[in-house]
Design a protein that fits this description.
about 150 residues; about 10% helix; 10 strands; single chain; Fumarylacetoacetate hydrolase, domain 2; 4-stranded antiparallel β-sheet; mainly beta
């Protein structure tokens, strides 16, 4: 996940690193209901990803502290069991390319966040599940899933 630090549009990939100052791990939850038809609906992503408290983010780390942004390890534990182990070099588009692509359609503003995505999902979460996310060996995010009616 990237934090945009400068406003910009149509950003060239070669200078895209100048447009973010920090990175972290984050989770953007998906709410699937029992309606199988929702997967084919035109507004699928809006209905499943745009709800109150649907995302959490970890502690921000200065981007300048990462000398090789193409080789950053990150992982996620669910109930103390690793469910994701990824590396930034496995991304389809690197951070600079993502910024360039996005800025061709949208003007980026200071403070915008870009979720870069991951290669795998962790599956269903239930109340009581505990999640912890790391960049390299450092925990950046830790919380417990609670019942939404609480």
């Amino acid at each position: 996940m990237l934090r945009i630090s400068n406003n910009g549009a149509n950003i060239d990939e070669n200078i895209a690193e100048e447009f973010y100052d920090a990175l972290t791990v984050g989770i953007n939850f998906i709410a699937f209901d029992n309606d199988a038809g929702s997967l084919s609906e035109e507004l699928f992503w809006q209905k499943t990803k745009a709800w109150k408290n649907s995302s959490v983010i970890g502690k921000w780390l200065p981007a300048k502290d990462f000398t090789n942004k193409q080789n950053i390890n990150f992982c996620l534990y669910k109930n103390r069991e690793m469910v994701q182990l990824c590396n930034s070099n496995l991304m389809i588009n690197n951070c600079s390319k993502l910024i360039s692509i996005i800025s061709n359609s949208y003007t980026l503003s200071t403070g915008d966040l870009i979720f870069t995505g991951t290669q795998v999902n962790i599956g269903e979460l239930l109340p009581g599940d505990k999640l912890e996310a790391f960049i390299e060996d450092d925990s950046q995010l830790e919380f417990e899933i609670i019942n939404s009616s609480q």
